[in-house]
């Protein structure tokens, strides 16, 4: 028997309700109950960052968060950043700098990078490296990813991007 709880939360700016199992992760809720597939399953242990989401303004691994703990919370996924100018600039920079190969880590990396630049607008390359250390990329390494994020940050500092 699997106990279910009804929860309410704000997802990407829209108030939502869901009935979730008590043992269900937020990642599984987002993918299997809500139908958003941008947040990726990587390791299931909070080590890779593929499932990074923002919860009440903090970046978290959704595989480690129980869905029932999303009750009353504000959640933003990669889909919620679709109209975000900073995230759009990051996605474009990832392409421009060749920071995307297979693309599996990209949603989590963009969510984390967007959060990093919003909370640490003066981040230099070293701070960017520290800020994304919980997000693994098995294809590109990190040089191009750091360069892409730094380019958006530099453009922001110069007033060239929103």
| Average predicted confidence as pLDDT | 94
Determine the CATH topology of the largest domain: Ubiquitin-like (UB roll)
Q: Note the main sheet.
A: 5 strands, mixed
| Count of structural domains | 2
Verbal overview:
The chain is of the alpha+beta class and 162 residues long. It folds into 2 domains: 77 residues, Ubiquitin-like (UB roll) (Roll); 75 residues, [2Fe-2S]-binding domain (DNA polymerase, domain 1), CATH 1.10.150.120. Helix content is 36%, strand content 17%. α2 packs across α3 and α2 crosses α5. The mean pLDDT is 94.
Précis, in short:
The protein is 36% helix and 17% strand. It has 162 residues and is an alpha+beta fold.
Descriptors:
about 160 residues, alpha+beta, Ubiquitin-like (UB roll), DNA polymerase, domain 1, 2 domains, five-stranded mixed β-sheet, 5 helices, 5 strands, about 35% helix, globular
């Amino acid at each position: 028997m699997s106990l279910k709880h009804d929860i309410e939360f704000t997802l990407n700016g829209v108030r939502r309700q869901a009935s979730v199992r008590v043992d269900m992760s937020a990642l599984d809720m987002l993918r299997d109950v809500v139908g958003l597939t941008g947040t990726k399953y990587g390791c299931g242990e909070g080590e890779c960052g593929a499932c990074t989401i923002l919860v009440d303004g903090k970046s978290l691994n959704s595989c480690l968060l129980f869905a029932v703990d999303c009750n009353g919370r504000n959640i933003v996924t990669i889909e919620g950043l679709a109209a975000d100018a900073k995230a759009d600039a990051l996605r474009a920079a990832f392409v421009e700098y060749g920071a995307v190969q297979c693309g599996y880590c990209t949603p989590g990396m963009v969510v984390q990078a967007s959060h990093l630049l919003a909370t640490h607008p003066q981040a230099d390359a070293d701070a960017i490296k520290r800020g994304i250390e919980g997000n693994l990329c098995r294809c590109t390494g990190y040089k191009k990813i750091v360069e892409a994020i730094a380019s958006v940050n530099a453009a922001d500092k110069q007033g060239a991007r929103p």
